From TrEMBL:
GO molecular function: isochorismate synthase activity
Species, as recorded: Roseicella frigidaeris
Top-level enzyme category: isomerase
Annotated Pfam families: Chorismate_bind (PF00425)
Protein name: isochorismate synthase
Protein's GO biological process: salicylic acid biosynthetic process
């Protein structure tokens, strides 16, 4: 972990190949509330703040929980300088649940999906997908420097690196930092775009092996079904708001430094260009890329099968201005930071045909970018990739 002279952390930061948006100092905050009240709160805020004002922050996974959006005192377009590397840090790690516990939860989800399929519930009622996540609590022997972390995460140009403030926790200030590959919604005037991802494979250093992994992902029926559920949900949810909506390229591979994904770029023109990007993002989220289908039933099952509340993992992070323009990403490949602690999260879509230990391996791979940025060297067997325990 590159610790050094701590540069003051920005209020928020978003960095991608398209540009960098940094918020410095806090000018105001939107009163926190659930997704259902966001439209009214945005309206009140921008009525007095004006069209050029920017609100940025995070929406939690649970639509009924409070979001956290803030206005910076000023904005900049470059990250604060990278601190000099300092001494190496020692980490203690706790998996919640451990690999076997996660595989067990996947088995339980598969049993429920199978029972639902057998019941032949009315179309639209049966549970067809659920995304199950696990978390890893990493505790350092020194405070984590968010600016150093941002620089390390930004080494992968294919993702959007972010840092946003969260409501204070028991141990003081908290932030969410990450490197997400998934665009939830961007909006400029009447143009909207989304790029749902679902279906994953680990990448490999050796080019032939890497290409074979990508090819196998494109051919996988299980990953194709997992992806189609997410892409169709986004199309169906955006359709009533749009006068045109299309997926011009169909399903394509989307590569990050450590993973291949199946992705569908969706583009549309809004009926009402005045709609806020934040509002549209809140209507879309959580998509079946992080929750499941039907959404409410999947969310209730996640609550039962996961040991911890997800907080802001699986929610949305981004910004919007007073004209309604903005960009929101799915809050994945991230960690909640608080002092010396980072809680990493990783999830995987479960559909009939999923295999519990493969999902364990996939979630371990999804921790990869954040672990590397923190400087944590996690042996594969301790990330849960060694396969099921027991006699051969
Ligand atoms: C839920 C996560 O990833 C989602 C995004 C891309 C691929 C996914 C998958 O293949 O399961 C997930 O739906 C996560 O990284 O925690």
């Amino acid at each position: 972990m590159p610790l050094g002279e701590a540069a003051p952390a920005p209020l928020f930061a978003f960095r991608s190949a398209e540009g960098t948006l940094i918020g410095l100092g806090q000018a105001a905050a939107l009163p926190g509330g659930p997704a259902a009240t966001l439209a009214a709160r945005l309206d009140t805020f921008f009525r007095s703040a004006g069209p050029d004002a920017i609100l940025a922050g995070a929406m939690p996974f649970d639509r009924a929980a409070k979001d956290d959006l803030r206005q910076a005192a000023r904005v900049a377009s470059a990250l604060p300088p990278q601190p000099a590397p300092a001494r190496s840090v020692r980490w203690s790690l706790r998996h919640e649940p451990d690999a076997a516990g996660y595989a067990d939860a996947v088995r339980r989800a598969l049993d429920i999906l199978a029972a639902e399929a057998a019941l032949s519930a009315p179309p639209g009622d049966a549970l067809t997908k659920i995304v199950l996540s696990r978390s890893l609590l990493a505790t350092a022997d020194a405070p984590i420097d968010p600016v150093a972390l941002l620089h390390r995460l930004a080494a992968d140009p294919s993702v959007t690196t972010f840092l946003v403030p969260l409501p204070d926790g028991q141990a003081g200030p908290r932030q969410l930092a990450g490197a997400t590959p998934e665009l939830l919604l961007s909006k400029r005037a009447d143009r909207v775009a989304s790029h749902p991802l679902a279906g994953s494979a680990r990448r490999h250093r050796e080019p032939a092996r890497d290409a074979a992994a990508a090819e196998a992902l494109l051919r996988s029926g299980k990953d194709g079904r997992e992806h189609a559920i997410a892409a169709e949900f986004v199309l169906d949810t955006l359709a009533p708001w749009c006068r045109t909506l299309a997926r011009p390229q169909g399903v394509q591979l989307r590569g990050t430094a450590s993973l291949w994904h199946l992705g569908t770029r969706i583009e549309g023109r809004l009926k009402d260009p005045g709609l806020s990007a934040a509002l549209l993002a809140s209507i879309l989220h959580p998509t079946p890329a992080v929750c499941g289908l039907p959404r409410d039933r999947a969310a209730a099952l996640i609550d039962r099968l996961e040991p911890r509340d997800r907080g802001f993992y699986g929610g949305a992070i981004g910004w919007c201005d007073g004209r309604g323009d903005g960009t929101w990403h799915v809050a994945i490949r991230c960690a909640e930071l608080s002092g010396r602690q980072a809680r990493l999260h990783a999830g995987a879509g479960i559909v009939p045909g999923s295999e519990p230990w493969k999902e364990v391996d996939e979630t371990a791979a999804k921790y990869g970018a954040m672990l590397a940025a923190l400087g944590i060297d996690l042996p594969e067997d301790r990330a849960g990739t060694a396969g099921p325990p027991g006699p051969p």
